[in-house]
Specification:
The chain is an alpha+beta fold. It has helices spanning 2-11, 40-56, 87-93, 95-98, and strands spanning 15-21, 31-37, 63-65, 72-76, 80-86, 103-106. It contains four helices and six strands. A hairpin with a 3-residue loop joins strand 4 and strand 5. Helix 1 packs across helix 2 (40-56). It is globular.
């Protein structure tokens, strides 16, 4: 599921897509998917595409927060939680450091 979210984010040109393996570290989810959009319109477009692609696979989000402002959208898919940030918010909240024990997998587009 996390990889499907990353692929959908990549389709809308999200930057710095990172998957964090939280298995054995957190009960919140198995994976975080973190990515960056340039502005609120792109952040919303990334969120919309992820929701659409995952719904097609029978996995609609359980919850989505922050969509209206488009600065930090959080999408909860149960085993995967997606964080779509604008650059300033991503640097400020720095989830990569906060969850520093997690294995980090940098997404690279499959060609």
């Amino acid at each position: 599921m996390a990889l499907a979210c990353a692929e959908a984010a990549n389709e809308k040109k999200a930057r710095d897509i990172l998957l964090m393996n939280l298995q054995g570290i957190s009960l919140i989810a198995d994976y975080f998917v973190i990515c960056t959009g340039n502005n609120n319109i792109q952040v919303q477009a990334i969120s919309d595409n992820i929701e659409e692609k995952l719904k097609e696979k029978g996995n609609p989000p359980l919850r989505r927060e922050g969509y209206k402002d488009g600065r930090w959208v959080l999408m909860d898919f149960g085993s995967a939680i997606v964080h779509i940030f604008q650059e300033e918010e991503r640097q400020y909240y720095n989830l990569e450091r906060l969850w520093g024990d997690a294995e980090k997998i940098f997404y690279e587009e499959q060609k």
